[in-house]
Amino acid sequence: MEKERFNNLIKEKLGNINLIVVSNREPIAHEYIGKKIKAVKSIGGLTIALEPIMRNLHGTWIAYGGGSADKVVSDESGKIKLPEGEESYTLKRIFLTKNDLNEYYYGYANSVLWPLCHTVYVKPVFNSGQFLSYDEVNKKFADSIIEEIKVQKELHISSPASSEKHGFSAGEDAEGREQSGQGLNSGANGERGGNVLENVIWLQDYHLARCAKYLKEYDENIKISIFWHIPWPNPEIFSVCPEKMELLEGLLANDLIGFQIIYHCQNFLRACEWELEAQVNWADYSVTYKGHKTKVMSFPISVDANYLNHLAKSEDVDKIIDNIQKNDEIIKPSYEFLAVSVDRLDYTKGIIEKLMAIDRLLEKYPELQGKFVFVQFGVLSRVHIDAYKKFNDDISGLINNINWKYGTSDWYPIVRYFKQLDLEVYLAYYRLCNVMIVSPLHDGMNLVSKEYIMSDTDYNGMLILSRFAGASKEMYDALLVNPFDTECFAEKIYNGLFMSREEKERRISKMQNIIMENDIYDWAYNFLTALYLI
Ligand code: F6P
């Protein structure tokens, strides 16, 4: 969907909404570089996906302010207008203590929920103390949202004219039907419609499982939703979590819960049946618990397809490709065949399994030695967690072994580059490579795979994609692999390298059409209208 159409449809369907998006990660962090302050874009899928939505809907984004200069550049309530020069939305930063971060972010969110939900044989480290901090931080986020709702209400009362901008009057929908709930929201403290701007609370991800509960305690009429970006595990796995009841009860305070794919919705509904004996309606995917109904739906997240496609074909990217071909600063060994991966350095991303497959590829097809190079781009992540430290050491060890095994005086097969690059540089490598490998052991969606498809404008390459990434449900024309099956994985890389251009074009253009049909604007529109219809 074009962004102009998105804006019009949102206005027409939902009226003049005050969107409050809430996530742990902020879209832009302000960092001191020496004495200067630099605005640094966050790299995770969540922030990249939601940024264009916020720019278009001009809402408020509440997130943890983790940059070293975040406090200095924000006002006394933690607010700053972003992005610089455009100032289309407000970022409201929450400042957490070191203890909050250790217990809530590194602790419960990323040492319990992350491994539990990804089911990748990394044992969650359960710790009830960390859960208490997780809960407290969720309450801090809820307090900040409530404060924001009150501020917006004050602003609105002092300038009621803004209510005239609503696309439909309170009490009827875009088609003029009467609505019992009157718009998306009844407003804080029970006021309905009229001059009150429609607050839309959209929580993001596994850091905020308990937040809705505190918001409903403040006002049970506020409409609240959450999108869970990561997988939801099967009920057997989930049942080992000591805080499973608290997590489910927190989540069921939302009116709408979105997951990436239907399988995650089903896992969640089964957990509600198993653990809470809640009433699940399998016909309309809803759960009724303690008298409150929550709708559960899948919304596969996507990318800004048109933007990426145009950027990949831009003069800037052409120039970068030219420079790489003349003098590649990153890939030193020469190659005839190039394979590329871009991952946050995380044990769920299947990097070890991919290196093992490349080892097998070079062993099985020795004619590729001296001609094939694989570059692993990445950024370090969550480095204060032991499992991540060990993982980074394991990757380095394996890369060194493989390079030692096959390397010659002027060639080696694996290049690692673990610093963040500009998007244009990644797009240049996407256009240059013969295969792009995206092989997580388990992933909610994986937006890198969609980014790659939209940038393969010359149909030069082929996507090798894990069956265990949510994206494989839509990108079924990629070469799908089970990353645990080294033999088949190596074979699929080989097939990708030698696939004809016609076949690549046929498959890639089909996948491009699928992404165009459901880009990031469709995703946000589908979610927000589903919330509206509840
Ligand atoms: O959905 C998982 C997610 O929140 C994505 O946004 C992103 O890929 C990653 O986790 C970011 O993690 P962090 O915010 O811990 O760097």
Q: Which labels suit this protein?
A:
ten-stranded mixed β-sheet; Rossmann fold; binds 6-O-phosphono-beta-D-fructofuranose; 18 strands; globular; 534 residues
CATH architecture of the largest domain: 3-Layer(aba) Sandwich
Note the total helix count.
Answer: 18
* Percent in helix: 40-55%
Strand order of the largest sheet: 5-6-4-1-7-8-9-12-11-10
Outline the low-pLDDT stretches: 162-183, 186-196
Using only CA atoms, what is the Rg? 24 Å
CATH superfamily of the largest domain: Glycogen Phosphorylase B
Strand and helix map with partners:
Blueprint: H1 3-14, E1 17-22, E2 28-33, E3 36-41, H2 45-57, E4 60-64, H3 70-73, E5 79-82, E6 89-94, H4 98-118, H5 128-158, E7 198-204, H6 211-218, E8 224-227, H7 235-238, H8 244-251, E9 256-259, H9 262-276, E10 279-281, E11 286-289, E12 292-298, H10 305-312, H11 315-326, E13 337-344, H12 351-364, E14 372-379, H13 386-406, E15 414-417, H14 423-432, E16 435-438, H15 447-455, E17 462-466, E18 479-481, H16 486-497, H17 501-517, H18 520-533
Parallel strand pairs: 1-4, 1-7, 4-6, 7-8, 8-9, 9-12, 13-14, 13-16, 14-15, 16-17, 17-18
Antiparallel strand pairs: 2-3, 5-6, 10-11, 11-12
Helix pairs in contact: 1-18, 4-5, 5-6, 10-15, 11-14, 12-13, 12-16
The structure holds 6-O-phosphono-beta-D-fructofuranose (F6P).
